[in-house]
Structures are given as structure tokens and as C-alpha cells.
Specification:
The protein is an alpha+beta fold. It has helices spanning 9-24, 38-46, 92-101, 126-138, and strands at 28-33, 71-78, 105-106, 117-119. It contains four helices and four strands, in the order H-E-H-E-H-E-E-H. It has a four-stranded antiparallel sheet with strand order 1-2-4-3, with helices on one face. Helix 1 crosses helix 3 (92-101). The protein is globular.
């Protein structure tokens, strides 16, 4: 499990609440990604574009909530009725609903669905987050 300390405190609290709800539903989840550096985001964004592999993100550096500690990804490790080793085909709609009931935005509802992704923007925009980050660097 990825260390949740990379998440902002309010997002960490929502993540923990979401994981408890999933556990109560007998769905075992593990957090696989939390905060990413801009360099990590650039590497992921390059995949399928300028480096080998499939496209795995549509967010270039500076445009991912992961970079601000406000997003995380999960993987399914077990769920009721599991009969396959391919857990990517697990109960994602139920998982998404559990995340949303905890106050998170679920990437599974996006134009380019990202079912493992959950975020909480705290009412901010990415532009506001980038400006605040630039201000902190210049201070």
C-alpha cells in the first residue's frame, strides 16, 4: 500500500473513510499512487506519446491533482464473488459510488474514464494550485 502521508490532510481523511467503506462492503483495495512530482507526471504523460507503452494519463505536468497531493489511485485486491485473477474487471461502479459517498470525485465518470482515480480539489482549480505553488517557490 502506498503511504497516505503524501496526501493533503483533508484528502487523506476522505481516502481513509473511503477505504473503510470499501472494507465494510468486503471490497479489498490498496492505494497504488498518491502525490507525484512534476517529473513523475512528465514521465507518465510521455508514455504512448514520446516513449513506448500505452497512453495512461491525459494530464501533462502541472495538470494532475496527484502533483498537489489531492488525488490517489487504487487497485482491487479482492471482492465478493471474485473468480478471476484479473481484478481490473472488479466492481468499479460500486467502488466509484463508495468513493463519491465519502466526498471524493471519481475518475470513472470522466470523458476519458480513469476508474482507479479519486480526487478532492478542495474547491480550488488547477490554475489556482499552480499559482500558489509558484508563489511558494518564489517566497
Amino acid at each position: 500500500m502506498r503511504d497516505l502521508c503524501g496526501l493533503e490532510p483533508d484528502v487523506r481523511m476522505l481516502c481513509e473513510q473511503f477505504l473503510r467503506k470499501a472494507a465494510e462492503a468486503k471490497i479489498a483495495l490498496v492505494v497504488t499512487q498518491t502525490r507525484r512530482s512534476s517529473a513523475e507526471q512528465a514521465t507518465l504523460y510521455a508514455m504512448g506519446r514520446t516513449s513506448p507503452g500505452p497512453i495512461i494519463t491525459h494530464a501533462p505536468p502541472g495538470y494532475s491533482w496527484h502533483e498537489f497531493g489531492r488525488a490517489f489511485d487504487v487497485a482491487i485486491t479482492d471482492f465478493p464473488g471474485n473468480t478471476t485473477a484479473d481484478l481490473y474487471d472488479g466492481p468499479w461502479d460500486e467502488i466509484g459510488n463508495l468513493g463519491e459517498s465519502a466526498g471524493l470525485e471519481w475518475g470513472g465518470r470522466w470523458k476519458h474514464p480513469d476508474r482507479p482515480h479519486f480526487q478532492h480539489t478542495g474547491g480550488k482549480t488547477l490554475g489556482q494550485m499552480r499559482a500558489a505553488q509558484a508563489h511558494q517557490k518564489n517566497a
